[in-house]
Amino acid sequence: MVGLNAMPSAHLDTAKTTGSILIASMMVGLVWANSPWREMYQSIHHLPVHIRFGPFGLDRPLVWWINEGLMVPFFLLVGLEIKREVLSGRLSSWRLVTVPAVAALAGMIFPAAIYLVVAGADPVQRAGWAIPTATDIVLVLGLLAFLGDRVSITVKVFLTALAMFDDIGAVLIIGLFYGHGFSFPPLAVALTALILAHVVARFWRFSWTVLALLSVVLWGAILEAGIEGAIAGVLIGILIPFERERPDNTRSLNRVQSGLRPWVFWAVIPVFALFNTGIDVTAVRIVDILDPVAVGVFIALVVGKPAGILGSLWILDRLGMPVRQEGLGWGQLVGASMLAGVGFTMSIFIASIAFIDHDLVTTSKLSILAASLVSALLGFAVLRKSAELTRSRSPGEPR
Predict the structure, then answer these.
(1) 308: Cβ–Cβ under 8 A, 6 or more apart, which residues?
(2) Centroid of chain to Cα 77
(3) Which of 230, 240, 301 is nearest to 269 (CA)?
(4) Confidence (pLDDT) at 308
(5) In 3D, which of 354, 351, 353 has the Cα closest to residue 368?
(6) Cβ-based neighbours of 356, under 8 Å, separated by 6 or more
(7) Domain limits of the chain?
């Protein structure tokens, strides 16, 4: 999800730092929830937050506001990244997108199918089919940054493009399959707000204040319509004008991205991680670890994700598509595909909306953490070994 037009060392340092902060937030949440201060964690986690606007209001626990409200900027950045890549990046030409697009699609379908097979016929458990379809590019880029120049720029670009399509797929899945029964009056309000926001952003004198107000209306209406409120962030992100769409707009899409990224990567995602990884492992039983949801998520991420990606890449390679490139041979592709099994942020978000049962949410989160750790270690090891082998061979030959 992080744009990589030109992958400078400063960007890699940022990826390394944000990845480290995210990992630290995960560890703090996990340790806090299992410490003598666990009751404090739970009281903050479930702290009632009341927000009123005249006759309108929402009374929800803090974790709901984090997942449905604070994550809106995260999805706004997703929308911005998608738009920029479609207009001028790696998604602007079919030649640029075919290989990562097909790989991403296979990397979503295959793990979802594995999960459904393991979950069995129980409709409650089957609701989590989308959990293993996502890749957490923040963590992945952080891991790649630790490898430094031992990983080629081509590997980073491939993984970023793959994650972009994962983001698009995840957004579509959340919007289409994880609503709570559409209500048409608020849906009409949301559509009206969206049209007005488009008019303001594209044709009238651009106003961030008006766009922000319309965004709040859109968010509230989407929630009332039974759709996940975070989707509002994606829609608004896509509406923000690009320079070539509106030259008079001094704050271009790129500037918005630059201003938004620090808040998302240094505040939004760490807070999300802190309050969504606080699993009381002392309450986890062996039967929970062997639950079909836990087993399905783990196998789908660790095995299904890389298998789907690599299988599709092998077929594309046989068809003559430009799969293997300089610095991106089969060794690097295997390692990159394994890293794609790191599905932390989006996977946990989907788990939190897929299940109503708290125990299933906890079980799936624990499995996501375990699978992401195993995928990260395997991918890291394969890429490191591949780099060592590449250095011992002549340059320029795809491995």
Answers:
(1) 106, 107, 108, 109, 110, 111
(2) 11
(3) 230
(4) 97
(5) 351
(6) none
(7) 9-178+228-391
Read off the amino acid at residue 301: L
Strand, helix or coil at 58? strand
Query: Do the Cβ atoms of 293 and 119 come closer than 8 Å?
Result: yes
Residue with tokens 């599709």: 312
- What residue ranges in 121-267 does DSSP mark as E strands? none
Half-sphere exposure of 103 (CA within 13 A, CB side): 30
Q: Count the alpha carbons within 13 Å of 187 in the hemisphere toward its beta carbon.
A: 11
Identify the architecture of domain 9-178+228-391 in CATH: Up-down Bundle (1.20)
Q: What are phi and psi of 366, to 5 degrees?
A: -60, -40
Q: Check residue 16 and give its pLDDT.
A: 67
* Per-residue confidence (pLDDT) for residue 54, from 0 to 100: 65
Quote the CA–CA distance of 301 and 101 in Å, as a whole number: 18
- Which one, of 170, 12, 169, 6, lies nearest residue 88 by Cα? 6
Q: pLDDT at position 263, please? A: 86
Over residues 250-294, the pLDDT tens digits come to 455 667 777 788 888 888 888 988 888 787 777 667 767 788 999
151's CB contacts (< 8 A; 6+ apart) are 144, 332, 383, 387
Hey, what amino acid is at 94?
W
**Which CB contacts under 8 angstroms, 24+ apart, belong to 176-182?**
177/130, 178/130, 178/228, 178/350, 178/353, 178/354, 179/225, 179/226, 179/227, 179/228, 180/226, 181/226, 182/225, 182/226, 182/227
**Residue 293 near residue 47, CB atoms below 8 Å:** no
Distance, CA of 337 to chain centre: 16
Q: What distance, in Å, lies between the first and last C-alpha atoms of the chain?
A: 27
Length of the chain: 399
Q: What is the pTM of this model?
A: 0.74
Give dist(CA 315, CA 373) in Å, integer.
Answer: 29
Residue 42: how many other CB atoms lie within 10 Å: 14
